[in-house]
Design a protein that fits this description.
The complex is a heterodimer of chains A (about 170) and B (about 170). Chain A is about 75% helix and about 0% strand. Chain A is built from seven helices and no strands. Chain B is an all-alpha fold and about 170 residues long.
Chain lengths: ~170, ~170
């Protein structure tokens, strides 16, 4: 009986480990480096960064126009306003933190927990996260050119989105 | 002699204007210099270690010089500065600095961002204006040690305004 329990626990353990691999497997160490490097280039500086941020948010609102209402308090009606720029850059800064920490698992976990808390009370539907991912998928290639690795981004974005959503 | 007078008058004018965060002392040229010098260190992919490490040194120095601030970082586990929670916090601080420096050219957005950050600090009891001043001093001492090019006048003129605005919602 005891052996059976041990074996069973072992099997469960393997299944869980497997599950973990299929969830995060694609965003492995090398992929993380690639995403980090490409992000650095895309994120850029100064006005370029503001343009990048605005482009991402315009794409998001194109995909899910109703999401605009969440951003009323930060000037969401006008993506060109200073107020909304500040917000758009704040969000990208949060994303920057997560990507930059992709190679420091412990700190990444803490950063994602923090972002999770900030997002929890806002009740953001899952498909808004998908829209954000799609938006990035459109704008990033314009920033990094043909070197943009869609699969790598998708895999690592999912790791980050999962952390922020909490599921 | 006349030039000296003009200079003195200018300095006085600057001193009077400091506080609104975008006075003419932090000129377009100053902002440009600050952005260029700051951005020069973060190009490397390994920058996460550099960023976290840099902020960690600054915050630990702050805590060493103003021990009462240690309590303020309890929530981010300052007891274990190498740990995940504190590292993530360091990253947040560098990221906020990075954000406002890269916004220097857009006064409207900068204003909104600084207001938001000032609010976030207002909610934390125990943070005082003098802590920001100290933080600014430590930063000004640390930056020239990591930046090959560091124009202290430009940095000083821009950061005075930035930090006074960051601390703008604090009562003490």
């Amino acid at each position: 009986m005891q052996t059976l329990v041990v074996i069973l626990l072992g099997v469960v353990g393997v299944v869980f480990a497997d599950h973990h691999v299929t969830d995060y497997g694609e965003c492995d160490e090398l992929t993380r480096y690639k995403v980090k490097t490409q992000w650095n280039r895309a994120y850029s500086h100064g006005h370029d960064r503001e343009d990048f941020a605005e482009a991402v948010w315009r794409a998001v609102f194109n995909i899910v126009p109703e999401a605009r209402s969440i951003f009323k308090r930060v000037g969401g009606e006008d993506t060109g306003s200073g107020e909304f720029h500040a917000h758009a850059l704040r969000v990208l800064a949060g994303y920057d933190i997560a990507i930059t920490l992709l190679d420091q698992p412990e700190a990444l976990k803490a950063a994602l927990d923090h972002l999770h808390k900030q997002h929890e009370e806002r009740k953001i539907p899952d498909h808004y996260f998908d829209a954000f991912r799609t938006a990035l998928g459109h704008v990033l290639p314009a920033q990094v050119g043909r070197c943009f690795d869609k699969e790598a981004w998708r895999a690592c974005f999912d790791v980050i989105a999962k952390g922020i959503r909490g599921h | 002699m006349f030039r000296l007078l003009v200079l003195t008058a200018l300095v006085a004018f600057c001193a009077a204007k400091i506080g609104d965060g975008r006075d003419h002392c932090c000129s377009a040229q100053d902002r440009h210099i600050v952005q260029e010098q700051w951005n020069s260190i973060w190009h490397d992919t390994e920058s996460s270690k550099v960023k976290v490490g840099f902020a960690r040194l600054i915050l630990l120095k702050l805590v060493a010089l103003a021990p009462e601030t240690k309590e303020l970082f309890k929530g981010v586990d300052i007891e274990h500065p190498e740990g995940g929670a504190f590292s993530a916090h360091c990253m947040r601080i560098v990221s906020a600095l990075d954000m406002i420096i890269n916004m220097l050219d857009d006064p409207e957005a900068l204003e909104a961002a600084l207001e938001h950050l000032a609010d976030q600090h207002k909610d934390r009891a125990g943070i005082k204006k003098e802590h920001f001043k100290k933080f600014g001093e430590i930063l000004a001492g640390g930056l020239p040690r990591v930046l090959d090019d560091y124009n202290s006048l430009s940095w000083k003129s821009c950061f005075k305004g930035l930090f006074s605005q960051l601390a703008g919602h604090l009562s003490a």
